[in-house]
Amino acid sequence: MRYEDAWRRSVDDPEGFWGEQAKLIHWETPPARILDATHPPFRRWFVGGTTNLCHNAVDRHLDTRGDQLAIVAVSTETNTTREITYRELHREVNAFAAILVSLGVGRGDRVVIYLPNIAEATFAMLACARIGAIHSVVFGGFAAHNLALRIDDAEPALLICADAGMRGGKVIPYKPLVDAALREANAAPAHVLVVDRGLDPAMERQPGRDVDYATLRERHLDTDVPVVWLESNEPSYLLYTSGTTGKPKGVQRDVGGHAVALALSMTTIFDLRPGQTILCTSDVGWAVGHSYNVYGPLIGGCTAILYEGVPTSPDPGIWWRLCETYGVRTMFSSPTAIRLLKKQDAAWLSRYDLSALEWIFLAGEPLDRPTYEWLTAGTGKTVIDNYWQTETGWPALSLMPGLDLKPVKPGSPGFPTFGYRMRVIDEATGEEKPAGEKGVLVIEPPLPPGCLTTIWRDDERYRRSYFGHFSECLYSSLDWAVRDADGYFFILGRTDDVINVAGHRLGTREIEESVASLGAVAEVAVVGIVDELKGQVPAVFATLRQGVTDDPRDVAQAMERRVVELLGSLARPACVYVVGALPKTRSGKLLRRSLQALIQGTDPGDLSTLDDPNALDEVRRAILRGPDCGARRA
Ligand code: ATP
Ligand code: MG
Questions:
Q1: Between the chain's N and C termini, which has fewer beta carbons within 10 Å?
Q2: pTM of the model
């Protein structure tokens, strides 16, 4: 099948196309109607069909692949590896579901899951899906306040947590954070189910409220819990966006559309057939983790490697070693993670047998050319940039090696995937931009299966946040993009990441790319700062690669020269700061808005999704000290 034909059919005849794809999963009752788009911007896929995510991910494979590995949970923090077959997974998920039922959780109830990247997180998610409870995974390690906000939004019947997580060899107690969050929250659940990993011997338990997973697991180990068949459009889960641009939104996903979209993406995009293995380095707490650590691979009958640990420990070869050991065919990671590896010796990329590995997918942030080239050259593999949002739940732009692989254009995530009719339009007039011109990336409704159905209990915010930007009913991605003459899309950053210098609009990404082309630079963030004469001017924050011993002031000057050389003097950075670390969200996205606030001396706003507070302090100190090149600010 050619990509062009398949894509064309998916948008011109969505009912015909998706009606066929629906056969990729098991329906207890087949859908009565494929698409109901009578109330835009809302739409319902596979109306009247009943199915279950857990059944499709687990039970359906028992006869054919019961003894195949379903999950390999590797922790380089606790030095453990758990290999779990589909049969064992079925047993664990049933036991977990029985525990949920025994604690009074039922269909439509919310369950907040606050666990590290361990097998129990997968069990918990699938157990919720089995009984029709709506899970809301909160990234482990979010602070108590973040957790409390999400608890109050979701109003869960139960919270599931671990005693502790670990990061870089350090134990991070979770339970005290949970206790604090529950003190702060108004909608605290009656019970907390604690997965005690034995990492925090000092953990306190609240009698009556806190219950122990291991004890209950023993009790329910051989209980069979029947699958609850759900109408396709019932909610399967809630997940909050990263909060890079503001207050996180509670993305609500359905059941049937989600399952069908993931099933289709596994073969066509990720090129994985049943029995093959994927290493997705995401945390289950992110959309990528939901879709490609848990649901996608299991629905597709694959083996999913779940990884707890940092990419550089015990050494920077760890992920490649896992690829060798488990014959990984497709790897999925993020540019941020690869940039971390890029600080290390490139020799790690060629130390292991990667003959089974075919594709390295990267998503989450713009993939800069130096990182792309470093990874391609070092591994000899095809690196595929793909673009999506928590909202879409699966790639919206990608090349499709499982269908027919088009040539990779570095810096481009390629073409729209199935059901995505995309346009690049003028932000003011809403008119379509010609090839080569920058505009806002929008999606014409109906959004394909797998995308969010609404914001949890807030249809109005859904409407306003995504469809309220243009006179026409269009989903705004809030990202800048350009489509070239061959139809390839390029993402240029977020619509709030644009600098207006003397009336000229510069994307922060263009400036970042030119700075990053200097070999000494590891990571870079560019923000606009107010300038009396020009309106705005660029400020550069950069970290240097490990082992670079040059004077930061020399490198800073080289950065300035490079920007002027590549983009012209209009883009000349007003100041360059060389720092030890850059502030990021916990999902690894650069927090440009807090950098901008710091340098302008304004309120950095919602820092709840900030990963490492030290990075922010470091930037603060650098700003006080003055730039390594250019004039002092703030
Ligand atoms: P919030 O919406 O709360 O501000 P967020 O947008 O960072 O948070 P996510 O849904 O995790 O939350 O991230 C989606 C965004 O990540 C996209 O809108 C885009 O800006 C960026 N992104 C994802 N993949 C790519 C990619 N391949 N290239 C460029 N940017 C990407
Ligand atoms: Mg977003």
A1: N
A2: 0.91
Cα 117 from Cα 394, distance rounded (Å): 20
The model's confidence at residue 632, banded by pLDDT at 50, 70 and 90, is low
Mutational test site, ligand 1, from 137, 372, 491, 610, max ligand atoms within 8 Å of CB: 491
Q: Is the CB–ligand 1 distance for residue 508 below 6 Å?
A: no
CB of 245 closer than 6 A to ligand 1?
Answer: yes
Q: Are both 538 and 431 inside the same structural domain?
A: no
Please give the pLDDT value at position 447. Answer: 98
What pLDDT does residue 633 have?
56
Contact partners, residue 552, CB within 8 Å, separation at least 6 = 544, 578, 628
Q: Which ligand is closest to the CA of 589, given by its number?
A: 1
Q: 261 alpha carbon to ligand 2 midpoint, in Å? A: 20
- Ranges of beta strands (E only) in 145-298 are 158-162, 164-167, 170-173, 191-195, 210-212, 230-231, 237-240, 250-253, 277-280
Number of domains in the chain: 2
> Tell me, what CATH number does 60's domain have?
3.40.50.12780
Asked if residue 56 has its Cβ within 6 Å of ligand 1, the reply is no
DSSP secondary structure, 498-510, as one string: EEEETTEEEEHHH
Average pLDDT of the chain, as a whole number: 94
Q: Is the pLDDT of residue 34 over 60?
A: yes
Rounded Cα–Cα distance for residues 256 and 449 (Å) = 8
| Residue 17 shares a structural domain with residue 155 | yes
Distance CA 472, CA 480 (A): 18
Statement to judge: residues 324 and 360 lie in one domain: yes
Q: Out of 252-256, 444-448, 621-625, which region has the weakest mean confidence (pLDDT)?
A: 621-625
Nearest listed ligand to the Cα of residue 496: 1
Instruction: Give, using CA atoms, the residue closest to atom 26 of ligand 1.
Output: 387
Q: Determine the structural domain holding residue 436 and report its residue range.
A: 3-480
Residue 489 lies inside a defined structural domain of this protein: no
**C-beta 366 within 6 A of ligand 1:** yes
Q: Per the structure block, which two tokens stand in for 80?
A: 């453990």
Q: Which atom of ligand 1 is nearest to the CA of 286?
A: 11
Torsion on CA atoms 571, 512, 425, 364, rounded to nearest 10: -170
In this predicted structure, what is the pLDDT of residue 246? 67
Q: Give residue-wise pLDDT tens across range 547-605.
A: 899 999 999 999 999 999 988 888 999 999 999 999 998 888 899 988 999 999 888 77
